[in-house]
Amino acid sequence: MKKNGYSAYFCPMNISEVFEPNRKQTLAITTLFGVEDLVVDELKSLGAIDIEKGNRVVHCKGDLKVIYKSCLQLRHAIRVLVYLDEFEAAGPEELYDGAVKLPWEDFLDFKTTFSINFAIHSEHYSHTMYASLKLKDAIVDRVRDVTGNRPSIDKVNPDYQFLLHISDEFVSIYLDASGPTLNRRGYRGESVEAPINETLASSLVKMTGWDGKIPLIDGMCGSGTIPIEAVYQARNIPSQWYRSKFGFNTWRNYDPALMAQVREEAKAKVKDLETEVFASDISEISLRSAQHNIKNARCENYIQTSLKSFENLEKPAEHGIIIINPPYGERLDPDDINNFYREIGDTLKSNFEGWDAWIITSNKEALKHLGLRTSKRIKLYNGPLETRFVKYELYKGTRKGQE
Length: 403
Prior knowledge:
The chain contains 10 helices and 15 strands. The protein is α/β, with parallel strands linked by helices. Residues 1-12 have low confidence and may be disordered.
């Protein structure tokens, strides 16, 4: 039986069991559409069990160490959530009645603070903010009735952050272990307009199959996110290595010795880079932003940057991978964007024979003007935009073809 997309083994438990360090908790790892398989592979490597893929989410089980490792190391995830309970509620009052039964006092007292994020997709809840307020009321009322004191709300730096998810009439409540979303690596101080999400950038690099042994080029690097994520992957640097605080740091069972062990084990796997990574852009503003972020990420010794137009790029080796996130053309004349993509195709054919080229774009029409035949096509989302991540194998005499 499945309810709300979850298997039967995702059953409610006592909230206090979250604090048992060796107990296998039920986790929900949220992610982006199209990269769920990458998260599955990561979770296997981190020791999670009972892994089950969903839509933009992967469910699994893991103890406290798996939770810590997931928050520190997952590259392709957005949040690490600990499942607390699920029940049916066809409206805000039923939501309150279900939530007030839970032992929130196991988490909260008058000294602790909390906040609530929410994702609601239901015709039973016309005002999503009101649903989160009813959950807040249930939590506060329960703690006050049991302890005589009430906890406080802190939307900026809470001790406990909960997620309310409602699909139709099925309510799920989670405890957020990650805190700020995991795509926020901490190195991006300067960004160009609409920079690519770090989680998506990391996923693009992984999907190319790049193994860190041949050169990689980002020919339109923007704020430098793709080459930074490439270096992190190739060197086995955890995605959150330079982050100082997660959601679990303020839980009452936080184990700093265990977290230190997790960090030491991850540090032992860091290695040097075997090849070169290049980042270039035609825009001085973009390149300065990239250079600033590359320095923040401690990658300045591993990424070569250059101010250069795409058509002037040349391959540094016989084989390699080039990734391009070009303008999608929402604000450009169709003829202009089609000609721009035609020039991209001409440069790839003339300058990058023997390489694999990967392009992400939402403009399917413009892709047709590359004059190249695709060998792979992956559906993804860049923010709200449905995109295609497309591979071109640039053999000698690459043939033209329609997308």
